[in-house]
Amino acid sequence: MSDIQGTQVVGRVALLMRIVAKAGGTGLSLPGIVRTSGLSRPTVHRLLKALAANGLLDLDEASGRWHLGPELYVMGTVAAGRFAVEHLARPALRRLAEATGESAFLSIRRGEETVCLAREEGSFPVRSFVLYEGVRFPLGVASAGIAILAFLPEAEAEAIIDDDGERTERFGPTHAAGPLRDRLAQTRELGYSVNPGLVVEGSYGLGAAVFDPAGRPAWALSLTGIEPRFRPGRREELGELLLAEAHRLSTAIAAPRP
């Protein structure tokens, strides 16, 4: 196999695993994976069988749907020792949920997306269900992705902002380059992002970027809830709480650990 062919196979394997991961706990059927990937059915079937043989994917025979496999759990457990941000973030999520009554989340940047890693439910009985563990959004969509994108280097951010075709098709014209630039400018001014029900009507979110030791926005803390809980006045209070916890978490991430 040539280097080019080998790289192509690795890229296709990664694509299929991301597609299955995006489906979350419901899994995805073979036709769904073929449709989403744009690859031929024989190619997808061959790669899925190879991934299943190695424990990276798993087929539920009863439903015919594919899920992430058990070997990924093992790998994730090993990797957690190096990327232990979720462990560091848990106290911040608890404090935010307890202080506000809203649901608090930690998301991580992966390429041009954010992935929700952890959540802590608040005490308020009416909740927003836009975010949950494993859900992915493009950068610039939802409060976490807006907060991260706002503090990326300008050239890197502009390339993502300008590439708005798929983002606009999936999430509507409010996510086109122009309106997104306005939200990013507001985020830089406030320090935190505001998503005023743009993904799901009536579901508000605030986000604050969390920085890695090199000063790059790599994660975000966010709060979500229904619109009446995020009106002016209280929104500013929530934003200040988010910024304080994001700063505390960024400091903890940068601190030397044994």
SSE ordering = HEHHEEHHEEEHHHHEEEH
Kindly report the average pLDDT value.
Answer: 89
CATH architecture term of the largest domain: 2-Layer Sandwich
Low-confidence stretches: none
Specify the CATH class of the largest domain.
Alpha Beta
Strand count: 9
Helix-strand category = alpha+beta
Straight-line N-to-C gap: 42 Å
CATH topology of the largest domain: Beta-Lactamase
Number of helices: 10
Overall domain count: 2
CATH superfamily of the largest domain: GAF domain
The shape is globular
Task: Report on the biggest sheet.
Answer: 6 strands, antiparallel
Radius of gyration: 19 Å
Beta-strand fraction estimate:
15-25%
Percentage of residues assigned to helices: 40-55%
Domain IclR-ED: 71-255
Domain HTH iclR-type: 7-70
Protein name: IclR family transcriptional regulator
Pfam families: HTH_IclR (PF09339), IclR_C (PF01614)
Question: Top keywords for this entry?
Answer:
transcription regulation; alpha+beta; 2 domains; 6-stranded antiparallel sheet; single chain; 50% helix; 9 strands; transcription; Beta-Lactamase; 3-stranded antiparallel sheet
Care to describe what's here?
- With 258 residues, this protein is of the alpha+beta class.
- It folds into two domains: 3-74, Winged helix-like DNA-binding domain superfamily/Winged helix DNA-binding domain (Arc Repressor Mutant, subunit A); 83-254, Beta-Lactamase.
- 50% of the residues lie in helices and 20% in strands.
- It has helices at residues 3-22, 30-37, 41-53, 70-80, 85-100, 142-150, 154-162, 165-171, 177-190, 234-254; strands at residues 28-29, 57-60, 65-68, 103-110, 113-120, 136-138, 193-196, 203-211, 217-226.
- The strands form two sheets. Strands 6-5-4-9-8-7 form a six-stranded antiparallel β-sheet, sandwiched between helices. The protein has a three-stranded antiparallel β-sheet with strand order 1-3-2.
- The protein is globular.
- The mean pLDDT is 89.
